[in-house]
Amino acid sequence: MASTYKTFLANDVATTKTLLHEAIPITGSIVSGTYKDENIKYFSSGMFEDVYDYPYLSSSANNIFSITAGYASGSDWQDSNNSQNTKKINIYNQFAQVLVPYDVTGNIQQFDQDGDITAGGTKMDSCFFVSFSRLLAKDEIKKGSFRFKLYGAQSLGAKESTDRSVLNINTIGDYGAATSFKVNSPTGEYGLLKSGSTSGDTVGHIYYQAGIAVLTSSILEGATPTADTNGDYVTNNTGNITASFSGGSISEIANALRYAFINVDFNNTTELNSTIYFTRANTSDYNYSSNPTYLSASKILVKGDNAFSEPVSYITTVGLYSADNELLATAKLSEPLKKTPSNELTLRVRLDY
Hints:
The chain is mainly beta and 353 residues long. The protein has helices at 28-32, 85-99, 134-137, 153-158, 241-247, 250-259, and strands at residues 13-27, 40-42, 49-52, 63-71, 111-112, 123-124, 126-132, 140-141, 147-151, 169-173, 182-185, 188-195, 202-207, 212-216, 225-227, 234-236, 261-281, 295-296, 299-300, 313-321, 327-339, 345-352. It has 6 helices and 22 strands. Strands 1, 2, 3, 4, 7, 8, 9, 10, 11, 12, 13, 14, 17 and 22 form a 14-stranded antiparallel β-sheet that branches. Strands 5-6 form a two-stranded antiparallel ribbon. β2 and β3 form a beta hairpin. The longest helix has 15 residues, at 85-99. 32% of the residues are buried.
């Protein structure tokens, strides 16, 4: 009868994984001027700021990313007289202990420029941290797709200007990371951010699963980008990034990066896992219905009064049950399928998660 359960065999079940990618462009006009900073949310702690795609008080606003900055304890940057000295150290340590493995003695390690932590090398001991929202990054950022354009520090340091056309533009990205990336982070895989090409200087890391970009402060060394009176253009004031990391607030340092921002674009990745069940109705299966209207006076209505006619049923739903026959999921067909003892059906049911 129709209530008979069939057990799936090994060749009745298959699993697949599909990676879906979406292009994510973030323009500098949103980040540093379109809404006159109404889409920038500052916090009383002064430890970070959030960037939204619309004024953040709007019900339709979505968080794009957060910006903060800090430096390592024990580095040349540390000075108890610095503005927010303890907070800057705590922020650096917070990101380092999540993104960089601890050493063998359990101490927090600094970000290593080339990612080869065990070999020593140059450390990035003062950094910007850009945390992209899960809404944009999804399961991970696609390797090799991350590009970040910003106004170069040398031009900014040499000339104050409200004309962006005269400013040097730098592009950093995870060039070549699709086939060459690092795996020694507790959060998963990350790529080296290089200036201009695969042979360019390493200026940071992009952590794909965490959705976090770590940028060395040297990308803006020599100038502090600020907004003009209208909040529309990049200018340069008398300070510089080096001085700001010491004497400036975290919000001022974050704004320096934000006002130098041209655009960021990358492809996100959504991992779609699927289990495919092949439900097979053989010749002797499911030729009858348990619906009470299927019978009248113990006779099958669809056969009329002809005892020699084949029984007929129409399959409309497939039910997936647990081992103890509890219904877990149902799959509806787009139209009923006729089932008789003279035909067989195989229905493909896909469960995505």
